[in-house]
Structure formats: C-alpha cells, structure tokens
Amino acid sequence: MSDSFVHLHLHTEFSLLDGMIRTKDLAKKAADFGMPAVAMTDHGNLYGAIKFYQDCKKAGVKPILGCEIYLAPGNMADKKEVAGRKRATHMTLLAENNEGWENLSKLVSKGNLEGLYYGKPRVDRDTLREFSKGIICLTGCISGPVNEWLRAGDEGKARETLAEIVEIYGRENTYVELHNHGLEPQRLVTPSLIKFAKEFGLKVVAANDVHFLNKYDHEAHDVMICIGTGNLVIDENRMHYSPEVYFKTAVQMRELFADVPGACDATLEIAERCNVTLKLDSTSSEKYPQFGTPDGSPREEYMMKVCQEGLIKRYGAQRAQEPEIANRLKYEVDTINQLGFASYFLITADFIQWARDHDIPVGPGRGSAAGSLASYAMGITDICPIRFGLLFERFLNPERVSPPDVDIDFCQSRRVEVIDYVRKNTASGAFLTLSLTVS
After folding, report:
1. Rounded distance between C-alpha atoms, residue 40 and residue 180, angstroms
2. Model confidence at 427, in pLDDT bands (50, 70, 90)?
C-alpha cells in the first residue's frame, strides 16, 4: 500500500471569498509534500483552471481539473423554494479526460447561464446526464445530496439519491466521499455512507474539503468569510469553518482514515485515471475548430483542390498553369498545411463567402494577408499578389512564431450577422460547404 495521498476536494482563491489558496502556492505545497497530483474543485466555476494547470505543470505535479457543483433539488430553471429541501446541494466532479473537461466546462457554463439562483450557478439531474461522459463523481461533502437525506433521517431517500447518481455516472465512475473534521454531522453520516458503498459496490474516497493551506491560516480565513457574508467576527450566529480544512499531509490523512481501508488509496487511483491535456501554445493550430470536408477527403488535400479551382476562376485555366503561379500556389499551400492551418483558411473562406452570398459587403483584404496567393484563390482577399509583387512570407512562413492574421472588413451594420454565423457554426462544427463563387 502506498503511503501517499492526493487531495481531490479543494478550493482555491477562485472560490471567491471562500477559498484562500493561490494556485502557485498550492502546486508548490503539493510538490513539497511529494504528492503526485492535486485537484482544484472551486464552487460552481472554472475561473482558475488554466492558471492552476500551468502552475502545477511547472511544479511537476499532475493537475486534476474539477468543480464542486451546485445541484438543484428539481429543475434548475425553477426558482421556487422546495419545501424541506435546500436550494442546492454540493457534488464533486473531476474531469477524467479531455471529453470530461469539455463536458465539465459545458455543465458549469449552463449552470451559470441558466441555473443561477441566489447567486449559485445550479444544475439539475438532466443536465448531469447530458454532460456525464468522461467525468468522475464524488458524492460530496456534508452538504452533498446523499448527506442531505441522511441528516434529515431519511435513509430511504438517501439510498434513492445515490442510486440515481450511480445511474448517471456508472458504478466505476462514482465514489462515496468521506470527510473527517471531527464534526458531529460527519460522524453520524459516515457509517451509512460506508454501508451504502458496500451495497452498491462502490469505493469510498477520503477528502478534506481544503480551503486554506496551513492550519494557522484559519484565523485569516475566518475573517475573509466574515467579509463574504457581511458579518462581524464577534457575531455568534454566523458561518464558521472548521480549522481542519487545511492542506494536510498524506500521513495526517491516512491517520484520519485509518479505520476506513482503501479510502486514501482511492485518491491515488482517481489521480492515476485523471489525464486532461490542455493545449495552451498560442502557435498551436489544434486550438482552432476543424473544417469538415464535404467529400470526406483530408482537409489538406481538399484545400489544394479549392485553391486550384479558385486559381482557374481568378486567372483562367491556361494562365493558372504557368510556373510562376502554379509553383507559388503549391509552395503556399504546402507551407499552410505544414503549419497545420488548413482548417483556419477553409473556415475563413467559408464565412467570407457566406457574407457575400447574403449580400453583406466585404472588404478586399488588407495587411500582410494580401500577399497570399492561396488567400486570393480562395476568395479571402481580392488583391492579386502577383500583379502587385506582394510577398507571402510577410504573411506566413515556417519561421513565424505566431498564427496567420487575416484582416477582414465587413459592413458595420451587418457584421454582427457574420459573427453570429461563425459563433454558431464553430460550436456545432457545421460549416457550410465551401462555395468557390468569386465576387
């Protein structure tokens, strides 16, 4: 059995006025403790995901991207109070892979756009089902949906709730989350949680609901909570956090859960499973949406076909075969494909042609893009680079560290239509088949 541990339930400073951990300090602490990974699970948001990911990578610690979501008791769009129910319960969701990261992002976005209630971006069970793939679910802290019923003394409802969670995420992706801060409510629900885990064939997992790095940070955190809730420190009936919700060592966590076999080992198992890769290189072509070719051919081949047909429309069949033009086109397209920007050009040509088809005035092109024969052939620009002796290398070349930048002017009163077209088709991947009609 390993003697390590991974914190899977943790709030950074991006849990606004609730967590007070800076991601850089977190990554260093995890590395200093010899932990192989650490998770970020802020309340209802993913604001700090990129910074957290980068800081962990620099520190040599695997970043686990997650979120503690707010689950509505019913439909997330229903803004009415449900008698005897909380406005929202908490569940810990972790992205296992890139599909999970995409689904988690969509889930959180939907909660913030459609489910806000008393400032909480809630989601509902139907939304969980819609975006469940690639996600590992921990059943939550003492404010979780299963614990809500256990604390109310209704074990039957608690069991039904857990069964629903298992139905959504699958037995292999559902873990029963345990906490031990020395609090009476936790002590009371833990036996039932362990019993449920055995009934459903689930694993239990230890967590500490981390809100600050060191135990001595509790006082400062308490003051921050008062600021967030609008209370005074001397107020007796206000929100209090346990001084135990700090970043404990593996030894401390294993001592806490010594009587629950496998609870700490499960954190390592989950960490091993979570492998999200974010491509943050600004020069990477993979961050762009990919153009689906209408004939199913590789987009690199399709781009050459589009350019050759466009060249004939621009110059005529005979002149398009002249070495000066044909060789330059091949060089440009080879360079574009080598750098991985075929989709970039195909999509740009697509929405420019869409604008023309809908009688939206489009400028002839300006800046360095006017030096591209491929852009001219595809209808992206209307300036012949051969005629004016313009250089393609000023626009794009293998030594260029930044992606191509095409300056396009649309009619001021109608350009919102073009932006809306791009937004919708980028989201769905359903760009229109590229028309080669040159205006």
Report:
1. 19
2. low
